[in-house]
Amino acid sequence: MLRPFELVEPTSLSETFGCLEHHGEEAKVYAGGSELLVAMRLGLLHSKMLVNIKHVPGMDQLELENGSLRVGSLVTHRRVETSALVRERFPLIARMESKVANVRVRNVGTLGGNLAFAEPHSDPATLFLVYGAEVVLQSSRGQRRIPLSEFFVGPYETVMEPAEILVEIRIPSFPQGMKGAYIRWGVLERPALNVAVGARLAEDRLLEAVRVAVGCVGPIPIRLQQLEESLRGMELSAAYQHIGSSGTAVRQWLAPVSDIFGSDDYKVYMVKTLLQRALRQAVEGDDHG
Ligand SMILES: Cc1cc2nc3c(=O)[nH]c(=O)nc-3n(C[C@H](O)[C@H](O)[C@H](O)COP(=O)(O)OP(=O)(O)OC[C@H]3O[C@@H](n4cnc5c(N)ncnc54)[C@H](O)[C@@H]3O)c2cc1C
Fold first, then answer.
1. Closest by alpha carbon to 223, among 114, 143, 139, 125?
2. DSSP 8-class letter at 258
3. pTM of this prediction?
4. Secondary-structure class of domain 62-172 per CATH
5. Domain map of the chain by residue range?
6. What is the distance in A from the centroid of ligand 1 to the CA of 191?
7. Of these four, 48, 82, 214, 258, which has the most CB atoms within 10 Å of its CB?
8. Same fold, 6-52 and 179-284
9. What is the pLDDT of residues 123-166, one digit of tens each?
């Protein structure tokens, strides 16, 4: 049952920061409410005040700027999924978004809320890592840009300071010639495991550049930079083999635990399998965006 709370509806960023600073821990940002209200209804979280940021202007842009996609934090999953711009320039992102939750959640849930909540089973977080995305955070002290790879600290924990909010996500295009793939795995609505790969083949068909991200397995989604480095310069068949034999390292990098999504052994096995599959899909596919 929902305990009573006060709802405030600022219409500017300065009003939002004033409210968050004045009420401290008692106030929580409210965007689509799809996570927040569920957590409050289940009694997992309580806040005396919700600060609804949906009427604050300047956080709903979805546009291209110098090849990067600028996504305001209030943009919903559904808007990204159905955007003609995203479908044309970042088709992999539009397809990933079409798999998030269900259409009801996608209609209200925002990208900013998804990343700010830092739920380890996030689709966008894992895919955005291989694009080298950044988040723009703002408080009354100004703005700062943080690589997404440095944003998550642990489950439900980010580097955001109290009274700081996420205002925008910036997603650069892949470098020239790089193609990508994203695979999510699971039987429940949220992914049990997901992987994203970006890969570019040189003329001699050796892997010239590789980006690899894995989510849901460890406490936060991460880029496997050591694996990326070891794959660089390899032939594809050698790369598939190398991934297949990297179980010990994968276990060390991701520290999987056994839970309702599967045993630690199963997760290591699935990470290797899905990474091989994603690499194949990336180099054979057509997703340049
Ligand atoms: C049934 C269900 C299934 C789901 N399945 C998936 C799935 O398959 N894949 C997936 O990736 N996600 C999934 N989700 C999560 C979903 O993507 C998020 O619920 C949604 O994007 C959160 O956005 P929101 O605007 O509703 O956030 P809210 O619920 O409003 O807020 C979530 C948290 O983020 C904070 N917050 C929100 N916006 C900001 C901001 N701009 N700055 C700072 N803090 C902020 C809030 O204070 C709160 O702590 C699922 C959720 C549900 C309920």
1. 125
2. -
3. 0.97
4. alpha beta
5. 6-52, 62-172, 179-284
6. 14
7. 214
8. no
9. 999 999 999 999 999 999 999 999 999 999 999 999 999 999 99
